[in-house]
Amino acid sequence: MLTLKETLRAVLYERLNTIYPVAPEDIDFLYPPQAKFGDLALSLPMPLAKKLRENPRAIAKKMAGEIGALPGVVRTEVAGAGFINLFLDRDSFFRERLASAGRSALRPEERKIIVEHTNINPNKAAHIGHLRNACLGDTLVRCLRAKGETVEVQNYLDDTGVQVVDVVFGLMELQGKNIADLDGIERFDYYCWDLYARTAAYLESHPESRGRKAEILKGIEHGREPESGMAFAVSRRIARAHLRTMERIGAAYDVFPCESSILGLKFWERAFALLKERRAIHRAEDGPNAGCWVMKVEDEDDREKIIVRSDGTVTYVGKDIAYQLWKFGLLGRDFYYEPFAETDGRTLWISTAVPNDRTVGFGGGSRVYNVIDARQAYLQKVVVQGLRALQYEAEARKSVHFSYEMVALSLRSLKYLGIEATAEESAKGFVEVSGRKGLGVKADDLLDLLERKAGAEVDKRNPDMPEADRRKTAAAIARGALRYFMLKYALNSLIVFDVDDALSFEGETGPYLMYTSVRLNSIFRKLSEREGRDAAAPAAKAAAEGKALESVSEAERDELWDLISTAAKLEEEVLHSIASLEFSRLAKFAFLLSQKTNAYYHRRPVLAEENEDIKNARISVLFYVRDGLKKALDLMGLDIPERM
RNA sequence: GUGCCUGUAGCUCAGCUGGAUAGAGCGACGGCCUCCGGAGCCGUAGGUCACAGGUUCGAAUCCUGUCAGGCACGCCA
Questions:
Q1: Which nt is closest to the CA of A602, judged by C1'?
Q2: Which of A112, A138, A491, A530 has the fewest CB atoms lying closer than 10 Å?
Q3: Nucleotide at minimal C1' distance from the A474 CA
Q4: Closest Cα partner for A512 from A619, A590, A566?
Q5: Is residue A50 part of a domain?
Q6: ipTM of the modeled complex
Q7: For A152-188, what is the HEC assignment?
Q8: Which of chain B's bases lie under 7 Å from a protein CB?
Q9: What is the pLDDT of residues A19-40, one digit of tens each?
Q10: Is residue A126 included in any domain, yes or no?
C-alpha cells in the first residue's frame, strides 16, 4: 500500500499542482471507514476549500474530473462533505503485492542507531517493570532493523552505583561474607532481591552505618579491595542472571557499557573539560549552590541543575552527559571491550577500562534512543540540554527519550504476593513496584507461572508431542503472552499489573495471535501432506496472471479483499510505530489482522473446497496474509510454534 | 507552587498531526464442534467521549477554563 500511495501521490501532484496551491505532502490518503466508500480517500478538497474560500464538495467534483485516470484505480467517486474516494483495481493490486514478496519499500535513514534499554541496576533480580522496558526496547530494535537500519543495542550497567553498594554492604557487613562465599549462593539474583530490601531497611533505621556505606562507595569508585572486587562480582553475576531472564523473552544486546569503565577511563573528566571549555556549565559563586558547577535549565524560571557537587564529585546527570556524548562519538575516545557471553553465535561485549588489543568498537551513533521510564523525563531533558549547551544541536535533536509509564501492582496481585495493602494504597487502587522495598513480581516468577499454565494447556491438547517440544512450546507461549501484554498498552498508560489479566490466553492476547498463525500454518501443512500441493503455487500463478479473485462470489471477493488490503498496510504500520514509538499500534494491527483471518478461515474452508479455482483463490490470499502475520509477530518477538 | 501526562461501555483499554455511523478485549446474556485445531467463531445488551465555553463546513481529537487522578521538580540514582 505504501508503494501505491507514493505512486499516486506523485501522479496527483503532477496533475494538480498547476491548478491548486498544493505541495506533495498535502496529498495524503486516508482509509475510508466503510468498504462502500472505496479503498483510499482523498480529503484534499477540504483543506483547499478553506484556502480558496469555496465549497469543498464543489472543489471535489471539479478535482475528480481533473484527476482523470489513475494507475491502479478503477474508478473515483465524490462523496460526503468533499471526499474523493478511490476504488482500486483489486486483481492488479494483489498481483503487485504477491510479486513484491521479499522486497521492502522501507529504507534506512540513519548511519547507525543506538538503542539503550533494560538498564537494570545489577544488584537484584529483574521485575515486571523491567520487562516493560525490555519489551519496548527490543521491539523498537526489531522494527528499526526491519526498516533496514543499522542498530546497536546497549544495556548500561551501573556497576559502581549506590544500589550495588547497598548489596555489597549487606553481604559484607550484615552477613560477613567474602567474595569466595558468593559462589555457594544459589539463585543469586533472588538472594540479592531479599538482601537488598533488608539492607535498605537496615540502612534506613541505622543512620550510624552510613559512614561505612560511604566508605564502601569510595572503595568501589577507586578500585580498592575487597569492596571493589565484591561489587564487580555482584554486578557481573547479576548481569548474567538478567541476561538469562531477558533471553527468555527474546531480548538480546550487543554491548554492556559499564559505569566502572566510564570512571576508569576518565570519560567524565573529558566531558567536564568540554563543558567548561564551551561554557555549558559555570561555577556558582554564591547562593544555595555555591561551590558547585551548575547548568542552566531551560525553564520558565531560572533553574540550575548541579553537575558537580561542591565536594568535587560528579552527579548522575553529569555522568549521563558523558555517556550520551560517547554514544554520539563526541567524546573522542572509546572503551576497551571483552567478550561477556555468546548467544546464537554472536558475541555480547562488555566494556572495560583495562587496555587490550581487541579491535571491537561501539558507540558513535547518528541517532540515539534511551528507553527509560517517564519518571526520568526531567533528567533526560537536562542531558539533552547538555548536548545543546555544547552546541551539538543536531545530536540533541536526535537524542530521543523513549518514555513510558511505569508498571504498578494491582491490589489483587499484592494478595498473591502475600502483602497487605495500606489504607492509602487501597484508596489508590495500585501499588508502585519498588525494588528497594522488595515489592514487585519477579520477572522469572511471572514467566514460570505463564509457562506452567501454558504447559498444562499444551499437554492437554498435544499428548503425543514429545516432552521437550511441549516445554519449548510452553516457553514460546509464555513469552508471547508476556510480550504482547507489555506492548498492547499505549506508552503513557500506567499498567496496573494484575496476575490474572497477565496470565490470560484468551481474547486480545499474544497466544491468540500465535494460535491464529499456527492454525493457518496447519492448513498449509495439510495441503502439502494430504494433497501434495505446493502451497506457494497458486500465489505464484496469481502473481503472474493477476486473476486470483475472479472465481469467487461477490461476497467472498470482498472478504478476501479486506484481508489483502489490511495485510498490505504492514509496512506503513511499522513506519508509524517507529515514528510515534507507539508499538501498541503494531500490536493492534496484528490483532486486527488475526481476527479477520480467524473469522475468514472459519467461514471458508480451504481443504474441503471442491472448486479448484475458488480453492486456489483462498490459498493464494491466505498465503499472502500468512506472510504478513508472520512478519508482524516477529517484529513483536512472538514465535509461531508448530503446534500449540 | 511550577511543569508534564491522564479522564471514552460495568472493568481494562484503542481511536487524538480535526473528517463519513465512536471501536476492541474482558465480564453479562444467547447460539456454534458428523466439517482445515473451540487458546476459536457468530449474535445481543451496554457510551451526555469528566464538565463548561471557544475555533471550524465538521471536534472524542485543537484552544481556554473548571473538577478529578497520576508523575516529576535533591550537592540520590
A1: B41
A2: A530
A3: B39
A4: A590
A5: yes
A6: 0.96
A7: EEECCECCCCHHHHHHHHHHHHHCCCCHHHHCCCCCH
A8: 2-6, 12-16, 19-21, 23-27, 35-42, 57-58, 69-77
A9: 888 888 888 899 998 888 999 9
A10: no
